[in-house]
Design brief:
Structural class: alpha+beta
Largest sheet: 4 strands, antiparallel
Shape: flat
Strand order of the largest sheet: 1-2-3-4
Radius of gyration: 26 Å
Number of helices: 9
CATH topology of the largest domain: PH-domain like
Oligomer: single chain
Number of domains: 3
Length: 259
C-alpha cells in the first residue's frame, strides 16, 4: 500500500501463470491416484495392454478437463483488480481500478461508501477485501474472486487509510472483522492452557468462563492412550477453537460478572 495506491497483484504475468498451471496441477494431483489405482486393478485382473490403454484414455480426459478449467480460471483473472489508485494523491477526485486487462474509473463524488472487511480464522488474518458502493447502489468488491490474493493488512489500518483520503469528500468509510469457522478435527481442539493463552485469563478460570459463554467442550482421550488403556492419565477437557475465538471479545465481561 503506497501513498495513493492499494496493490493486490504485483506481477500480473506471474499471477496468471500460477492460476493456469496451478489449476492443471491440482486436478492432476487429485486424478492421478485414481488413474493408477484403476489401471493397476485392470492389469491384475485383465491384461497389461488393457491397463495401458485405460491409463492413456483417462489421462487424456483428465488433461482435457483440467485444460478447460484452467482456461476458465485464467479468463476470470483477466478482469481481476491489480490495484486501486486515488487520483490526484492529495485530494483525490477519481478512484481508478486497474485490472489485469483494462481499467475502470469512478468519480469520488459518485462514491457513497467504502467498506473494509478482514477475514480472521483461528486468530489469524486470512486477508482483507474492500467493497466500494456507489450512490446508485452498485458495489465493486476487490478482490473479486477467491483465486485473487487478499491484502494482508488489518481492516482498521486500511479503513483509516481510506478515511484520511476520502473522508473529507463525504465518503463513509467503515471497517469490520469477520470471524470464519475453521471446523478443526477433535484432535486439534484446544486444551485449557491454550484457551487461557488466547483469553489471557488464569487456567483455573477457563472452565467457568467457557461454561458461561457456551463454548463447546468435551473430555478427550488421545488415540494412543485409548489403545493402551491409560484413559485416566491422558483424558483431558478440550475446547472448540472456533468457539474460543468467537467469544474472545466477551471474555472480559464474563470474568467481571463472575468476580
Amino acid at each position: 500500500m503506497g501513498t495513493s495506491r492499494v496493490v493486490f497483484i504485483k506481477r500480473a504475468g506471474q499471477h496468471l501463470s500460477l492460476t493456469f498451471f496451478g489449476g492443471l496441477g491440482a486436478l492432476a494431483f487429485v486424478g492421478w491416484p485414481f488413474i493408477l489405482l484403476l489401471s493397476g486393478l485392470i492389469w491384475i485382473f485383465g491384461s497389461f495392454s488393457a491397463a495401458w490403454h485405460t491409463a492413456l484414455v483417462l489421462t487424456g480426459l483428465l488433461f482435457t478437463v483440467g485444460l478447460v478449467l484452467a482456461v476458465m480460471a485464467f479468463r476470470e483473472q483477466l478482469s481481476e483488480t491489480r490495484w486501486i489508485e486515488l487520483q490526484p494523491p492529495g485530494e483525490p477526485t477519481v478512484v481508478v481500478f486497474k485490472k489485469v486487462r483494462g481499467s475502470e474509473s469512478m468519480a469520488v463524488a459518485h462514491l457513497r461508501s467504502v467498506g473494509v472487511v478482514e477475514k480472521v480464522k483461528l486468530g489469524r488474518s486470512t486477508g482483507s477485501e474492500i467493497v466500494f458502493t456507489t450512490a446508485e447502489g452498485r458495489s465493486i468488491t476487490c478482490p473479486g474472486s477467491v483465486l485473487a490474493p487478499r491484502l494482508m493488512v488489518s481492516a482498521a489500518t486500511l479503513g483509516g487509510w481510506f478515511a484520511d483520503r476520502l473522508g473529507p469528500a463525504g465518503v463513509e468509510v467503515a471497517h469490520e472483522t469477520v470471524l470464519e469457522r475453521a471446523y478443526p478435527p477433535i484432535e486439534s481442539w484446544y486444551t485449557a492452557v491454550q484457551v487461557a493463552a488466547v483469553w489471557r485469563v488464569p487456567v483455573q478460570d477457563v472452565d467457568r468462563i467457557a461454561d458461561r459463554l457456551a463454548v463447546r467442550c468435551q473430555m478427550f482421550t488421545p488415540r494412543v492412550g485409548a489403545l493402551h488403556g491409560v484413559n485416566l492419565t491422558l483424558t483431558t477437557m478440550i475446547y472448540n477453537p472456533d468457539d474460543v475465538y468467537i467469544v474472545a471479545a466477551d471474555v472480559p465481561t464474563a470474568s467481571q460478572e463472575d468476580s
